[in-house]
Amino acid sequence: MTCKKSEQSNCGDNLSLYSKSSFPIGVAIESYDMVPGTRNKEIIDRQFNSFTAENILKPNSIHPQENTFNWSEADQMVDYAVNQNKRFHGHTLLWHNQLPNWMENFQGNSAEWEAMMKTHIQTVCSHYKGKITAWDVLNEAFNEDGTLRNSLWKQHIGASYIEKAFLFAHEADPSAILFYNDFNLALNDKKREAVLSLVRNLKQRNVPIHGIGLQMHISIYFPNNSTIASALKDFYQLGLKVHLSELDISLNPRGVDIDLNDDLLQKQAQKIHDLSILYQQIPKPYQYGITFWGHSDVHSWIPGFFGREDYPLLFDTNYEVKPMYCKFLESL
Ligand code: G3I
Fold first, then answer.
1. What are the CA-CA distances from residue 326 to residues 173, 300, 314, 317, 332 (Å)?
2. Is the CB–ligand 1 distance for residue 76 below 6 Å?
3. Separation between Cα atoms, residue 251 and residue 262, nearest integer Å
4. Low-confidence ranges of the chain (pLDDT < 70)
5. What is the distance between the alpha carbons of residues 142 and 183, in angstroms, rounded to a whole number?
6. Spatial CB neighbours of 153, under 8 Å, sequence gap ≥ 6
7. Strand, coil or helix: what is 183?
8. Helix (H, G, I), strand (E, B) or coil at 285
9. What is the DSSP string of 43-90?
10. Per-residue pLDDT tens for 225-250?
11. Computed over its alpha carbons, how large is the radius of gyration of the chain?
12. Interval 161-217: pLDDT, tens
């Protein structure tokens, strides 16, 4: 999509989001975003001061065979951030998706599964110690009804795999900030309550958990602002740093034929503005940052994954700023 001139705010893109912000502004990147001379690189360098690997630190990519770790591409990405004194957020040590075949087919009793999980977590955390200062230890462990997802980890190790994962990560890098990351925690009360109760339980038993990643795959229609505000409060009041992770704002959550017009783009701009203002009401020590799940509509995961037309990010398919960018900048 290219915005017509009349649709664009005229803030330009020679400004910088992170330079204006009092909290880190992050983006998920792939290796092609770092190629010299490209518009992708220009955007990520100018606008963001925290990077997350969209895919290459996930188990299938970083640990493709039982005795093989695939460091080179990820090292390059992490060093790219560290050399610019920018933060690198690790995503994700454990997930039920994007596991390598050997892990999915691993044969062993529960002690052997636990040892395998420990090796994975500790090898990756140790390798990046001092460079990756915060990790999503666990991603999406709950179902929408608030029950624990029956992942391979749960099947083979039991529900205690969760606390073990946090303990193993902490043992490998005691100074790393450790997050639980999930979606729909604002929208879905049952799921939010289940995660809050997990966090209370872990904290009572001194299991090291320091932050919550609220994946913000949201839309211009929902969740509403008061629901988001209550979710933010629920989590920072438990003493967790709050990461608005994986932010994109869908214009077309129902997957219908859309008439892309200025009204939709302005609604999207208003939503990011509202979200940013709500985020800035969190007490400072709990503001870990906001991370966009990509920078330009060209590369968003949403159209491919859901098979629908959508434009959820800050820059359009011609890498031009959208009203959403300008309104977000204004809010900082
Ligand atoms: O790497 C292969 C490549 O070799 C192959 O040629 C190509 C062909 O399709 O596929 C490539 O893998 C794709 C990978 O992204 C890297 O581009 C996978 O097919 C594709 O499924 C994968 O999608 C990622 C998705 O997680 C996987 O579930 C998205 O990029 C990524 O944005 C998305 O991110 C997740 C978060 O990690 C967790 N929260 C939800 C979020 C959205 O699903």
1. 38, 19, 9, 16, 10
2. no
3. 11
4. 1-10
5. 9
6. 94, 96, 113, 117, 161, 165
7. strand
8. helix
9. HHHHH-SEEEESSTTSHHHH--BTTB--HHHHHHHHHHHHHTT-EEEE
10. 999 999 999 999 999 999 999 999 99
11. 20
12. 999 999 999 999 999 999 999 999 999 999 999 999 999 999 999 999 999 999 999
Asked whether 48 and 82 are in contact (CB, 8 A), the reply is no
91, 94, 305, 313: residue to mutate for ligand 1 pocket, most atoms within 8 A of CB: 305
What is the distance, to the nearest Å, from the Cα of residue 312 to the centroid of all Cα atoms in its chain? 15
Alpha-helical regions (H) of 105-182: 110-127, 152-157, 161-172
Q: Is 136 near ligand 1, meaning CB less than 6 Å away?
A: no
> Catalytic residue numbers?
140, 246
Task: Please tell me the pTM assigned to this model.
Answer: 0.96
Indicate the angle between helix axes 189-204 and 225-236, nearest 10 degrees. Answer: 10
pLDDT of residue 2: 45
Tokens matching residue 28? 């998920």
What's the gap in Å between 127 CA and the centre of ligand 1? 23
